[in-house]
Amino acid sequence: MTTSAAAAAAARKECVKGQECKQAGVAHCEGCLQTFCIRHFNDHRQSLDAELSDLSSDYNNFKTTLDLEAANPFVEIRLQEINQWEMESILTIQKKANDLRETLSHVKDVHIESLSTRFQSLVRQIEDSKGKDDFVEMDIERWRKRLNDLKSNLISPTTIILAQHLSTPLVATMSVDFLWTGNELFDRVLSNDIRIEEEGEVVRALSFFMVANEIRGKNNYAFGCHKIRLRIEHLSKQWAFLGINSARIPLQKNSYEVKSAYGWCSSNYNYVKGKALPKTSGPAIEMEANDSITLIFDCDNRQISMINERTQVRHDLTVNPCYCPFPWQLHVVLRNRQSCIRLLST
């Protein structure tokens, strides 16, 4: 064998099927990056065709289900719950209104009786002094002052006040939220300084002169325990915030400082109710380029956790729903150009 022939034989790739195939690998698949002989490459393509056919069937089944979604019985159940809340709220308000009417009527009667009693007492004093003819200028002035005092307490808009106790609402408020489930994706950004890429799996900072830009996830979390994995592909100036915010709070600058924000900053700070609390004991909060991070949102126990998979260090925070009401959303903040985060499969 010549040198060139030996080199060609050595460079020739074998079919990926190995021992079951002695043919040369002459066809390369750009998807799985494997090399096949012609026969096994055709088998591979047929296998992919079968998988696509199964997927198309799933798509068609989902389309049929989606067309029926408008009549989903679970919506009717929620409507019945809203109707029940409406009826109970109306009854509660009606009862409170009747109580207030009775109170107003009682207070009016007591007030009028008090005015009448004080007026009769004043009349008797005047008539008694008039009969004895022992009154002087000071008495007249005093009686006039008392009479004016009684006049000022006649029922008027200024003597009856209805106080509204906003801190203790009579009826509990209700809101409607749809809880997205499934794989988490980046969904909203505050400005064009941030770009969402690869159909929501990647978020990248673009601008040289950035404020702290907020990024939100697609999913809403209100029940159960949920895990999100992400990788910090690039972290310019080593600054990022990872955590949660309430879905009810709008996107804004420096969102990690609002009272609904809970999470961790790569500069070794916990954030609780938007306040930066330096980590003074225990392992430091580490977020570096190429680190994979696991976030756990435990809604049932009102707790969130962050685990750095490189260091295996876990950090936990207790969340007060009064400040960060459900549903929660993934909350990321970047503020330096080229910082980039990728969501990973769990």
Q: Please provide the count of β strands.
A: 16
CATH architecture of the largest domain: Sandwich
Share in β-strands:
15-25%
- Oligomerization: single chain
What's the helix count?
4
Question: How would you describe this protein?
Answer:
With 346 residues, this protein is of the alpha+beta class. It folds into 3 domains: 11-67, no CATH class; 91-152; 186-344, Jelly Rolls (Sandwich). It is built from 4 helices and 16 strands. The chain has helices at residues 3-11, 38-67, 73-132, 137-152, and strands at residues 27-28, 35-36, 186-189, 194-197, 202-205, 213-217, 225-234, 241-246, 262-265, 269-272, 275-278, 292-298, 303-308, 313-318, 328-334, 340-344. The chain has a 7-stranded antiparallel sheet with strand order 3-6-15-8-9-10-11, with no helix packed on it. Strands 4-5-16-7-12-13-14 form a 7-stranded antiparallel sheet, with no helix packed on it. A hairpin with a 4-residue loop joins strand 12 and strand 13. Helix 3 (73-132) runs antiparallel to helix 4 (137-152). The two termini are 53 Å apart. 16% of the residues are buried. The model has no long low-confidence stretch (mean pLDDT 88).
